[in-house]
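User: Teach me something about this protein's shape.
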Amino acid sequence: MQRVTNCILEKGNEVLTLRKPKRGWWVAPGGKMEVGESIRETAKREFYEETGITIKNPELRGVFTIVVEENEDVVNEWMMFTFHAKEYDGELLEKSPEGHLAWQEKTSISNLPMASGDYFIWDHVLNRKEIMYGTFYYTKDFDLLSYRLEGDDFELSAKKEESNI
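Assistant: First, the predicted structure itself:
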């Protein structure tokens, strides 16, 4: 199982986003863990490699399992650890090796194209303090099939046929 980290960097009313070229979706910068790395080390290293910015004091805000299915068979699965930071050093790269970097207004995040489950993650990180745990099930084309999310004082779940996800 692959392990990845990402970090939502908040600066005033803005957050730093990365638009990936494959689907044109906006994401929080991050990437794959290397052997022997802690999730926090990975978050800091990957954020720096993709943005040129060194995040300070990143706080873990989410632990998620992402499952990709085809004909009800699991074809891919990974763990994602999402961090939040408000402090940083450095200058934003003019050109990221991973896509297009842009500061976005926090209020515009829900209007950006991204994986359906990411809307839940961004909303949680920007509006709550505790850690959220969850599982997202997608098709190979990244249509959200179902999800289960929980925190200290909430639980959410839905299947595609039960809602408009």
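Now, about its shape. The first helix runs from residue 39 to 51. The chain has a mean pLDDT of 95. If you'd like, I can walk through any region in more detail.
User: That's plenty for now, thanks!
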